[in-house]
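FIELD: query
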Amino acid sequence: MTAALLSPSLLSADFSRLGQELTALEKAGLSWVHWDVMDGLFVPNITMGPDIIGACRKVSKLFFDVHLMIDRPSRYLDKFAAAGADLICVHAEAETHLERTVSEIARLGAKPAVALNPHTPLDMVEFLLPQLYMVLIMSVNPGFGGQKFIPFCLDKTRRLKKMIQAQGAATLIEIDGGVSLDNTAALIAAGADILVSGSAFFAFPPYHQRHNDFMAAMADNG
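FIELD: result
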């Protein structure tokens, strides 16, 4: 991947017609889609699990960016990999043996990623960067869509980018939470590669036009 891209969060999609939503995203030119998996323990909300992802995998060629906001995700890695997750992202705060979990994701054939809550320091992933396809910086406290972007996460993105460059790693940076057209350019300029947008995307159809709007904002980061 060389250019920044958008990964719309299905948390803000119409759950009664997920298959159609995925088809519409493909037709609109999207290549990634973000799955917010919540268990009611790690975060105060419950969403979908591997069975739903597996059913949708049969009708979509999109890259499935699966974000596990669940307690001890290592218990379920095989199920999400079998369901068709292209990337599995676990929270650093949810695992005691994070390196073991990251290695297991890679062994299962998915791209490994780690998410950090807004307050979680970057040194939680410093030594794992060469093993990680992506680091996800949460720019809201996880659990619900429609929250406002936490400003200090912009500087956190810059610092992570410098850390990655200092190691000569190829790790991508994804930002999730409060992403909108207003802050897209600043996030890309800070070093983000992938932006997750839920309500700021799905609430503004048609999807192809909204996608174009985000891509134009990403290009305007000078």
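FIELD: remark
The beta strands are 5-8, 32-38, 63-69, 87-91, 111-116, 134-138, 172-176, 194-197.
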